[in-house]
Every structure is written in C-alpha cells, then in structure tokens.
Amino acid sequence: MHDSPEIIGRIHSPYKEKFAVPRQPKLVPSATARIELQGDANCPEAVRGLEQFSHLWILFLFDQNQAAGWKPTVRPPRLGGNERIGVFASRSTFRPNSIGMSAVEFKGVTQEGRQQYIELGNVDIVHGTPVIDIKPYLPYSDAIGQATGGYAAEEPHLAAVFFSPQAEALLASRPDGPHLRSVIQEVLAQDPRPAYKKGKTDKKEYAVHLFDLNVRFTAQDSEIIVTSLSPVTSG
C-alpha cells in the first residue's frame, strides 16, 4: 500500500510553465511529448502491447497546484472567468486530489540505453509533470457519440496569429523552425490570456516559455502578434 500515488514517469513536453498550456488535449495537434518511465515501470514488459492502441489515457498529478489547495467552486474560462460553478462540473486544475487525466495520441515506444519512453501527441501537460498511471483508450466504450458538453459543448474560438519579422527570422534560422512555428501558432491561437481579456485589445506584452524559447506576444481584438522570440538560457 502507498500513502500517495506511485509516480511511474515524468512528462517531457514543450510547455515549460503552466501559462499557455492548452486547456484540453487535441487543441495543439503539432505538439509532441514523451513520458520518461521510472522505477519498476521503466522496463520493456510494462509497455508490451501498447502498439495495439492509437490513443492512451494519461493520469497525472497537478503537482504545481497542490500547495494552493482547492475550493468547492471555480470560475471556468469558458464562462468568461466570472460565473462560479462546482469544481466537479469543471476541469479546473485545483482539485481535491490534484489528479488530472488526458486522452492523448500514442506515437510509439522508444528506448535509449535502458531508458523506456512513451511517445505522445496532442498533449496538454506541463513539462516535468509526474505521471501516476497509463491506460489504453477504448473507442467502443470511451467515445460516447450522444454525450452533451454543457457550457463547453463547442470548440473554443481560435485567434489569428501573426509573427513579427524578428520572430520569422529566428525561426527561419533553425532546422526545427517549421515545427516550432506550428506549435507556437496553435498554442497562441487559444489566446492564453485571462478569460475576461479574450477578444479584446490589450496593451500588455505577455511572455511564455515554449521549448527553449521565450515567446513574447500582444493581442489586438481577435489577433495575437508574436513580437519577439529569444532563446532561454539555463541557470
């Protein structure tokens, strides 16, 4: 028996901080990630048979929120960040047990030396997040065609994203530039600003850490402008 869930791995993803992480999986299809398995889970036997499935359920801990605790009601961004509803009627990251779950694309298992990795797509999880379980997604039971989505029934509106000449030049100078551009564009199209600012002109310049880049952007009505990109130095 464990007093707390056993951590079986860690997420490696482009999202180096909570800000600008997609609020649901599948919203940033160009982003890839991987789980670095650890402990007893880091063995070929534990992942045997995964190749039969196209998608997986990932259960993880909102470890950056645990110290903040939780409240019975929350303000979902889809309701403008003003109306309160019960925490169990939301996907708020502030939950009684800080457990999250995401249905993600399975892209294969890789091995580097003795280290096992599970390669994923469409992940909405912060880099370094502890993983506590992995389960196969079963279309016949997990996909319910007649399901209703309440206040979040419709996909979110996407903003148009434009890149400054400086940002375009930096991306053009890198061999992974096209991939970085796609991910940055898909992330910012969600408009990660506070809900009450969506669709409005904002004089503030925001910054988010994606991959190894500091991405700075502003918003004008329903448009997001990437003003600059700069490498993030470690240390």
Automatic annotation (TrEMBL):
Q: Which SUPFAM superfamilies match?
A: YaeB-like (SSF118196)
Q: Which InterPro entries match?
A: TrmO-like_N, TrmO_C, UPF0066_cons_site, YaeB-like, YaeB-like_sf, YaeB_N_sf
Q: Which organism is it from?
A: Vibrio quintilis
Q: Which gene encodes it?
A: tsaA_1
Instruction: Quote the Pfam families the UniProt record gives.
Output: TrmO_C, TrmO_N
Report the protein name in the record.
Putative tRNA (Adenine(37)-N6)-methyltransferase
TsaA-like domain segment(s): 5-146
Is the keyword Transferase in the record? yes
Q: Name one GO biological process term.
A: methylation
Any GO molecular function: tRNA (L-threonylcarbamoyladenosine(37)-C2) methyltransferase activity
The UniProt record lists the keyword Zinc-finger: no
Alphabetic keyword roster: Methyltransferase, S-adenosyl-L-methionine, Transferase
Annotated family: Belongs to the tRNA methyltransferase O family.
Query: Which E.C. number(s) belong to this protein?
Result: 2.1.1.-
